[in-house]
Fold this sequence. Notes:
The chain is globular. The strands form six sheets. An eight-stranded antiparallel sheet has the order 26-25-28-29-22-23-24-27. The protein has 18 helices and 29 strands. By secondary structure, it is of the alpha+beta class. It has four domains: 3-82 and 210-292 and 403-454, 3-Layer(bba) Sandwich (FAD/NAD(P)-binding domain); 88-198, Orthogonal Bundle (protoporphyrinogen ix oxidase, domain 3); 466-531; 536-642. The longest helix is centred in the last third of the chain and has 42 residues, at 490-531.
Amino acid sequence: MATTHSVIVIGAGISGLACAYALKKSGADVLLLESSPSPGGIIHSVKDGGFLFETGPQSFSATPALNALINDLALSDELVAAPPRAPRYIFVNGQLRSAPLSPPALLASSLLGWPTKLSLLREPFRKTVPPLGDESIADFVRRKFSPDLLDLLVGPFVSGIYAGNPEKLSLRAAFPQIHEAEQTAGSVIRGLKAAAKSKNPPGQKPTLVSFRNGNETLTQALSHFLGKSLRTGAHATQISRNSSNQFEITTTIDSSSAQFRSPHLVLATPAQIAASLLRQLAPAAAQALSQIEYAPVAVVSLAYRRADVAHALNGFGFLVPRAAGLRILGTVWNSSLFPNRAPQDHVLLTCFLGGATDPDTASLSNSSLIDLAHRELTPILGLKAQPVASRVTAHRQAIPQYNLGHLDRLAAIQSDIAKIPGLHLTGNYFRGPAVGACVEHGQSVAESIRINADRSEAAVSHPEKPLPGVPFWVWSAIVVLLVFTLYTSRETIHLNKQIAETTAQANAEIAKRNQLKERFALAQREAIILTDPRTVKITLTAENENLPDLKAMWHAKLGIVVAGQSVPMPQGNRTFQLWLIPKDSDARPIPSLTWRPDAEGKFLLLVANPPDAMEATKSLAITEEPAGGSQALTTKPIWVGAII
Ligand SMILES: Cc1cc2nc3c(=O)[nH]c(=O)nc-3n(C[C@H](O)[C@H](O)[C@H](O)COP(=O)(O)OP(=O)(O)OC[C@H]3O[C@@H](n4cnc5c(N)ncnc54)[C@H](O)[C@@H]3O)c2cc1C
């Protein structure tokens, strides 16, 4: 016999735990099903022989949402912060070089050549427009800065967050803040500076943290709160819907089958598992989910006697550019960052191998991985003996790759699941893989379930939410660029002026040509949409008399164009977001792209691949949302237009 709950969440990683926790706190009768014997998913801490091994994340960035959750769970006293000034190293030309994380360090560093330094100096003075289509991180860095910056700094940082390939990762999906900065300000540095001003009050920098007894402290506390609402060892095998529109979930528990039933279902599993569970119910979403690639990563922790390591280990650890030819992607010096990681006179280091650029290495045997990591570390750190302890965890599907087309895949997923009222997805493939981003997404899904359950109009308007968390390495990159501008000395300004003058003509020409190219491409697309008789014209009427009406054209195959003049800039670090409001009153609004007007108030939004659902759509609406957009409406629409 099936037991019924008001919400069922499948998957007790940090995303599912955060979602279920928020639901239970709001009074919902929630059941969280987890296939493993213990909750936490990728987050797992192991104490063995006096060492504290982290088999997944080694630390995480203390975002406001995560801090709030930690406070709520009364875990603040357990928190340990990494030394904020711990240097990060890059392995270049056979040695560890301090990664330049401040403007003076960047200028002084011999890591980067003058062409790169000049490209950074010039950036705030050049107005550029990002291409209309998706752009890879590698193309972005080469277009705006230099190949050296990509190879020596950005590439290793990207592999530190995504274990990814910068030639394939989408800038817009993986680092929306950077894309948005160029989009709105024409300069990444100026845009990030403006965004940071409106986002982080002075002195509130995200810190890199862990817990005294390991990262698992967080997932254990969430599980403890959930109590009997968490069922481990329950492997969901099938999902269907019954005649009362409730979800029927079949699970295997202790080799027997058990059924659960609920009007709301949250899938908080990796994308591939969600794809297999949704194959019957939402085939289009399943198809898009299955296209999200994951990079495999092997986590290899090695412990040594302190006396057997020549290097001072005075820092966070090091990252390895691919050109260095090592298999190690990076190494964290755990015992230099947090207390309780190793017994007295010992050190603990954790290496990452594999990733999107070297996937086969993650499948090596444990002993080969230990040998490989030890062999590569030996000359770098001056190791004099074999490790005294080790631990290997190979994650075959470790980190989702926000590759080119990722936002289109997410839009296709959202559009398909919006047709099934009560169905929700969360996980690390939505807002970033960082723990903080998973917590925020899980909480936002819980919130949208609460709103749906309330079904009250007022519930649509909520207090402003914090922006999605910025992973630590992005933050470092942002800080480099931001502080760089702030510290710019008079001499540098003078130098900038000279450079700007001598290069102004060429830059202006390039910018003009780029703009013309962009405009031409957009105009071509607009013209096709405008002239095709199958195009539907929609007036988006402003709810507020101070705002102008917008015009929209929708062609189910070619795209949606929304345009307007004299549109005021949204307040703070917010953007306009376009929504497709379904005819089915039970279905949720489908989120589409976000945009901001340009400096002259010209608003032009082009959705290249609209969901093929014009017939099922009642109207278009535009709301103001946090930068990067939301999965569910957080404010009342300010423009609405019916599709007739
Ligand atoms: C090696 C590594 C290092 C990382 N380092 C960092 C870092 O330093 N900082 C940082 O912020 N982030 C880091 N991350 C990213 C972060 O840890 C993850 O993105 C995050 O923990 C993912 O959480 P999740 O809940 O979305 O997914 P998961 O942790 O994968 O949880 C999904 C859960 O679903 C369960 N499940 C699957 N199928 C079923 C089923 N059929 N029925 C029931 N349950 C099911 C699984 O058992 C699992 O518990 C790292 C990730 C990896 C792999």
